[in-house]
Amino acid sequence: MTKDCVKPSVYAGVPCEKISSIDDYYKKRKGLQLDEAEDIFDMYYQKYGNISEIFFLFENAPIEELNEEHVRVLKLADSYQKSVERYEKRESRFSDYSEFVEYCLKEWTNSWCFMIFICAGGECYDASNCIFVFYPIPSN
Where are the beta strands (DSSP E) in 71-135? Predict the structure, then answer.
């Protein structure tokens, strides 16, 4: 059922009904991103007792200074160029991943998620066009 859908909008259900505009949905999801990242951290830490991944959302090194593992992950699913473009445009709330970890440990919750996805472009609103990124952090 697509002939009567107003684009760009979010639809769901049977019968299909409009939930929101794509812009409102994007703002809502972006607003929840930190809470969801914190939930991911919480459950991962509870399960494994450590954190072995960095989300590029919190990495601040220039692209040319990323380590080999970071570059390998950026190249997953043939998304390197989109990943680099998004990486260079991002706004980090934390100075680095360690600061995010400290924040999560202070704000401990009991929710579950497993990954953060970062949309690669303005027209990218479904997961098939988004980039899923994880990075290992150095052990102390």
Answer: 117-119, 130-132
| pTM (2 d.p.) | 0.38
**Local structure of residue 123 (DSSP, 8 states):** T
pLDDT tens per residue across all 140 residues of the chain: 556 777 788 888 887 888 888 888 888 888 888 888 788 777 877 776 765 555 566 777 788 887 777 787 778 778 888 888 887 887 777 777 778 777 777 765 433 323 333 333 333 334 444 443 333 333 34
Contact call for residues 104 and 93 (beta carbons, < 8 A): no
Strand partners, 119: 130
Q: Cα-flanking dihedrals φ and ψ of residue 133, to 5°?
A: -135, 130
